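In the previous chapter we treated chains in isolation. Here, by contrast, the input contains three separate entities that must be folded as one system, with a combined length of 1033 residues.
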Amino acid sequence: MFDELLLTVLLTSVPLILAATGELVVERSGVLNLGVEGMMLMGAVAAFGAASLSGSPYIGIVSGGLAGMAVAAVFALFVLGLATNQVATGLALTIFGTGLSGLIGAPLVGQAIDGLPSMTLPLLSDIPLIGAFFKLDIMAYLSILIVALTSLFLMRSRAGLILRSVGINHDSAHALGYNVLQVRFFAILFGGFMAGLGGAYLPLVLTPHWAEGMTAGRGWIALALVVFASWQPWRVTIGAVLFGGVTIMQLAGQARGWTIPAQFLSMMPYLATIVVLVTISGRGRNVFGAPAHLGKRFFMTR
Amino acid sequence: MFILKPRKSVPLSLTLLVPIVAIALTLMMGGVIFGFLGYNPIEALYEFFVAPLSRPDQIGNLLVKACPLIIIGTGLVFCYRANVWNIGAEGQLVLGAMGAGWLALSFPDAQSPLFILAMAAAAMVAGGLWGAIPALLKIRFRTNEILVSLMLTYVAALLLDWIVRGPWRDPMSFGFPLTKTYPDAGLIPALILPGIGRLGQLHWGVVFAFLIAACGWFYLSKMLSGYQIKLMGDAPRAGRFAGFSQPRNTIAVLVISGALAGLAGMIEVSANIGQLQPNVSFGYGFTAIIVAFLARLNPLAVIVAGLVVALAELGGDTAQISMGIPKVVTGIFKGILLFMLLAGETLTRYELVRVKAHHTQDQQGRS
Amino acid sequence: MRKMLTSLGAMLAGIAMSISAAHADKLKVGFVYLTNPGDHGWTYAHEVGRQQLQDHFGSKIETTYVENVPEGPDAARVIRELVGQGNKVIFTTSFGYMEPTLKVAKENPDVMFDHITGYKRAGNMATGNIRFYEGRYVQGVVAGLTTKSNTIGYLGAFPIPEVIQGINAFARGLRSVNKDASIKVVWVNSWYDPVKESDAAKVLIAEGADVLAQHTDSPAMLQTAEKAGVKGFGQSSDMHDFAPKAQLFSSVNNWGPYYIAQVQKVLDGKWSTGDGPDHWAGNTWKGIGDDFLVLSEFKNMPASVAKKAEAARAGIASGTLNIFEGPMKDNQGNMVLEAGKVLDDGGLWGMNYYVEGVEGRIPN
């Protein structure tokens, strides 16, 4: 019973881990992309459509990632090429992505696909209590690998150092001869690919369906999660499982006769994010890895 | 390579041209998308942007749809001029609707014609307080107002959801998540035009929307404290030298925009719904951001911008009824329009200049 | 340039004329939908009904629909828009359209309105509804004979009378064959949210349920059941194709006959606000006996179970089986209906309790 509940929690957290890890890298480079929800939806519809046409969920995974990346490239063009306001451009991306995914998906509504099979690892999955960790699917396992690699990249590699320094102060990074726009461009593409993967996970694993706006706010949760994790990749994983746990507990709680209104449980992630923001912002910025130039426009004027 | 170079002065013609070009480009792209989907582009654009205005009552409906966008948009202009990024107007709207609803449900026998004003005040207080949270946290803890106001939007939506399903639910609603209907004194009456009569859903709230936008314009362009808001946004250091207080400015604009969003929520419910339900807004708070940008942060232009965006919303329905075009196309239009406007904004402030070698000195612009 | 503009103008005018002149003599019938008709649930069932209506009358009528209409002020505008485009009969197919429909009906006395599942009426506004709960009793019978864990999972959208009736009818059917089985209810707070429905189904399975029922609209629950190897019931339309091994049967909403009857009356000039008594549910409120509710083929169950299900169905259709007949206790043990008495329709709409066999309490 616990085992199955835990499995459900883990499944719910995978799209959050994927999208939030992508956004984390984007924000570490100093760009705030509020278009996560739109990119996830594009990933979801592309993954569903591709899986439906090709019959292969694996083609769906790749298509989802690429679709997220494609719309992220539009975002990059505007915020980097034209130095447009990041907040408004991100919102435009979400509005646009929500609409476009709905339009592309209109003929797909009501269809069903074969989802991604689960890959139960022998022996490990029989361990009591934590066996659920080994009953997931290829995307879930990969998401953990990606978090590990992202963490290594950011903290241990030279390229990661450059990316972080661009986020902390783009002017100094530029003065040191780093190509700020190029670094951010790749970061945004990576973020788009990951958001696309996160979106793809919904129709490929969670429910083999396409429905308009099916991400239902997960993109915003992913944004909250990055802050909640204070821009540390591994904390994203922990946060995502906590957030997933809250989602599942409000359903499981009902089945067990809890009386706390579901809405208050649903509020937790958002309130927790505000609390974390207050805690980390109050103690000075860079101790916790918040990129100081997050959301600020970068102009090369000369 | 190309770089962006600030213009020494922005010609008025460019200021006016940008929104027009942005709209034209959006329409062209929309036409291409329609063609791509197998619809006749001209017919589709006609159904989207002309047909919704082919009857007088539809003009009334357009004004009604634009009403919350204009009110919220005016408030957002204050914020964005001050370089304070409130994107939580949706939540402030919900709180406003709840504040007014609390009054309307507490006094079911209210009869005074002033009652509606009390409700408006309650809505503005509730919305303003909700808007003050990100401001206070920003000042006290240096938190990012974008993230806090966004998070509070979700909290507000869940709060309303809980309250209409739980404590405020009408016991006679058969379990449906609806409150009691407001007393008549808590409703905004339809606007009867002399010689024409009723025009669709047109109500008195629309008149107030126009007034609010006009007042906003007057305040921002003619009053010293209005100038202060813009100065603190564009050049905070100069503003501080001039003796203005940055924290006070931040609180002021967030409270103003929160209060206006709250008022929009109250008008929306009192004029169109008459009771609280789990959904009262349908994204006005976010759409108003587009309106503020389309208006190039000018409250008078907000009126026009609000009408243009509202037209795209109405067009979604007409195009669907007559041609079967999915309604989500409206979202695509809104998204593209915002993209175009943002690009236009950059190109009015800066010019693309070709340079040979690049120097390392650069300048950090407005964030 | 001027030439181009002139020709463009002529084109626009031409389009406008062709749009307004088309089919002026046909009776125009409009439908307002809550979601996309491809949902395979509630709206899909209405869309099937609309197509039956169009096929039945052929060139005599012209039907249109508007999808994804939120329940709020937008609904009133969309209904007005349908009126403005010349529709003379308008079906609004969700409870939340009640007030908007009423408002527009009062403004347009020459247009006939038909609101589905509401209880407010006007001289030109009828209400229609289906006795959905009848199908759920049969589901309960099948569930009681199928379950091994004696735990039934039930997904509810909102705790409104229609859904409570369904849960209680299900419990009556369940307990009529299996005294040990009980129902765990999870509220999804949405009619259509495939991801959440699927999450809720997983949670219920984790809590021990081996038969799932739903009062939400997507096939997500059945797909989850199929994957987990448990059984379930479809909703609104036959969802067999989504879960060939899991679906026991589905209660199919059959709106076609109602729509055809109502439009026929308009064509004959005999339209009235309804033919039944003045129910809370609508003045037309019919169920299995009138084919408003159709049960899809009984599958994935032994013949003996199918036989009992068929017997229950037939009993409800003929009126020999009363679902809510005393003695009936609520799940706190209080007697709510004395022996020999039958709950009337008013009692059905006043249900604010769970009957025996349902766990927990109705959220307030």
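Confidence is low (pLDDT under 50) at residues 1-5, 11-23 of chain C. Chain C touches chain B through 40 residues (CB under 8 Å). Compare these points with the single-chain example from earlier in the chapter.
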